[in-house]
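Continuing the series of single-chain predictions for the mutant panel. This is the parent chain; the variants come on the following pages.
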Amino acid sequence: MTATISRAGCADIADLRQLYYAVYGPHYPTALGTDPAEMTRLIGDPHTLWLVARCATTGVLVGSAAIHSEPGSRIGRLEGLAVHPDHRAGGLAGALTEALCAQMLDQGRLDSVYATVRTVIAGPQRVVSRNGFRPMGILPNAVDLNSRESLALYARYSQGVLDRRIPVPEVPAPLAPLLRNVERSLGVSYADTRATAPVPAPPRPAAARLEMIEAPAFVRRRFRERFPDSAQWFYPLHTPNVLLMPDDGGFEVYAYLNRTGRYCALVAAHPEPAAAAAWLEPLTQTLTRAGAGYVEALVPLDHHRAISAFLHQGFIPSALYPAMRPEGDGFHDYVVMSRTAEQIDFRGVVVDAPLQPYLDSYVSAWASTYLPTLEVAP
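Parent structure:
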C-alpha cells in the first residue's frame, strides 16, 4: 500500500484514538493514544515529533508513531508505534520509524532514542532492528495490556556517541552477563570493567510507617524544586506523580505510577539515593499494594553501592543503556534494575535471535536470586 507520511495535527486526534483502539483495544496504557488533552499537548510540543501515515488513495489514517524528548535532554523515546491491522506487512511501521529517526537522530537533535517493544510477536522487534535499533535487555512483566506482557529495550544512537562512553572501573558481579550481551549487540567493550562482589546490604530500617502521597500537581511542583538539574534523576522522560517518605521525613522518593499498565518507575530520591537504600523493600511493598506489579529504576552503572542495594532487595539487572546521559565530552552508562511482584510466564514470549541472550541471562539471574541453592548431605 502506498502511504503519505506527515506531522500529526489536532484534527487527527479522533482518527488516532480509533487507530490505537483498533490495535490495542481498550487497554492501551498511555495517554498518547487515549487522552485528547495530552494528545493535543504532545502535537504542539516542540520536543515531540509525531508522524502519521495515511492511505494515499483513501486518505484514511492507518499508522502513527512519535519520538518524545524533554527540554534540555538529548535522549528520546520512540512511542505509540501502531499500524492498523488491515494495513500491516506493507512496511509502514518501518517507514514511520525511519522518518522519525532521520529527523531526530540523523540531524543531530538527539544523541539516542530508545524503544520498549512488545514480545508477544517478533514483528515489532524486527521493525526496530531493521531501522538501526539494537537490543539492550528484556523487562519481564513490565506492562499490563490484555494481560501481563514483557517488553524488550532497544536503542539507536547518533554517530560517534558510543565512542565517547565514560569508562566504568567496576560493577557488581551479577551484572557481568548483561555487559557481555551488550558488548556483542552494540560492539562496545567492557574489557576494562572488573566484576566484583556486591557491597554488603545496608541495615534494615527500624519499624516506621511509610507514607505515599498521590497528588500529581503537588508532587510535580515539589519535584522540580528538589531537582532543578535533570542529571540527578534516575529516569528521564518520566514525570513523577507519587511521593513516598517515612514519618520522620528523612528522605523523599519520587516515582511514576501507571495504574492502567500497573507498573512503576522510581525517578529520583532526595537528598540522595543512599538515604533511601535501606528502604527499598518497604518502598517496593508499598508500590505493589498500590497496584504496581512491576517496579524499575535506572541506576548509573558506576554507582556500585546503589546497584548492590537493589540487588540485595531482589531487583534483577534487566537491561543496560550505554551512553545514556551526557556529561562534558563523555556519556554515562545506566542499568535498568527491575522487580516484579507477579508470576513470570515466558510461555507467550516470542524473541528474535538477537534478543535471546538477554532472556537467557535474565532467567539465570532470576533463578540465582529467587531459587534456593540445594545442598546434598553426604
